[in-house]
Amino acid sequence: MVKRLLLLAAVIMCANFATAQTLEELKATKATKDAELATAKATFDALTGEVDGLATQIANLSGWQFGALGTLGANISQFNNWLGAANPDVFTTQYGATGNAFANLQNEKYFWRNGLNVVATKTRLVIDKDARDDAEFETTADAINLTSLYGYKLNSKWAISALGEYRSTLLDNFNNPGYLDIGAGATWTPIPNAVVVFHPLNYNFVFADGDLAYESSLGCKIVADYSQALPMGVAWKTNLSAFISYDDTNNFSNWTWTNGLSFTAWKGIGVGIDFGLRGNRQESYNSFLGLPSTVAAGTTKDNFAIGDLDGADDPLQSYWVVGLSYKL
User: Which long-range contacts (CB under 8 A, 24 or more apart) does 236-240 make?
Assistant: First the structure.
């Protein structure tokens, strides 16, 4: 009996030893395979990056390229007999859209880049429910920017270029004011998705009604444009357009910086945000004179110069729109 028990114990110990040995071997084999898999993934990612880079280069040299992205936003709210509020009956409706589109032509010797940016928002606010039918939508955001850049390549990164850029409002006061820049100089393209324009010979035409005080002038045009596909399906486009006047740098210069970000969730549809900043003393000057509550009695453009504006009268202009995004 004792011999049988000893034999059984020996068999169990051998089985445990074999199982432990097999488990250690499996763990070692798995660790080796994990290392091989990590190496394979790294190789795959590197090859994918190279293929994508080659595809981009081929696309950039194969003719016209088109694309568009933007944001659609809407908001509706209503309060009825909400007596705790200052206005117990309020109905608000707002909708807006932003759009960025491009049409670019690439050739071994030249390029032609065209871009369009549009921002438009309408709002209707009703604080008297009996007057809802008479309320109208008011424009609360309005901008259009159209650019066309042609360049003759000196090498892969530098080109002699000419630029035309038009900026104004689209829904209200079209071309009042309107800005048209026409100039020539050099363009630098350090990477395929980035363009930097430096045109020291540029004329800034400003169009406006006679009651407004705007001045056209000769100056330097600087434009920087960059777009990039970020991780997790995020698309980003940014553009800076600046004019530096030779006649009056402080008062006649202007700049605009716009950004568009969109997250794609399904087939080009997702969530996006667009925002922009602008500095323009001529616009501030005319807006200031157009608001009687801020101007002393008798103050007109004949006795108030644009240089008289202080920081409070010349604010930083800005806008932002958040909503449903689309990418074409």
Answer: 236/260, 236/261, 237/69, 237/100, 239/115, 239/117, 239/145
Using the 8-state DSSP alphabet, how is residue 290 labeled? T
Say if residue 2 is in the same domain as residue 103. no
Burial class (CB in 10 A: 0-12, 13-18, 19+), 159: buried
DSSP per residue, 48-89: HHHHHHHHHHHHHTSEEEEEEEEEEEEEEEEESS-TTSSSSS
Determine the Cα–Cα distance for residues 180 and 145; give it in Å rounded to an integer.
10
Domain boundary among 60, 76, 106: 60
Based on the domain organization, do 3 and 142 belong to the same domain? no
Tell me: do 125 and 251 sit in the same domain: yes
Phi and psi for 177 in degrees, rounded to 5?
-90, 165
Report which of 99, 190, 197, 192 is spatially closest to residue 150, judged by C-alpha positions: 197
Domain that holds residue 35: 1-60
SS3 12: helix
Q: Where does the pLDDT of residue 234 fall: very low under 50, low under 70, confident under 90, or very high at 90 and above?
A: confident
Q: Which residues contact 17 (CB under 8 A, 6 or more apart)?
A: none
Q: How many domains does the chain have?
A: 2
List, in order, residues 6 or more apart from 229 with CB less than 8 Å away. Answer: 235, 236
Per-residue pLDDT of 100-148, as tens digits, reads: 888 999 888 999 999 998 988 888 888 776 666 677 888 887 889 999 9
pLDDT in the model for residue 77: 78
**Residues of 97-106 as b/e, b for ≥16 C-beta within 10 angstroms?**
bbbbebebeb
Cα 168 from Cα 172, distance rounded (Å): 10
Of how many residues is the chain composed? Answer: 328
The terminus-to-terminus CA distance of the chain in angstroms comes to 84
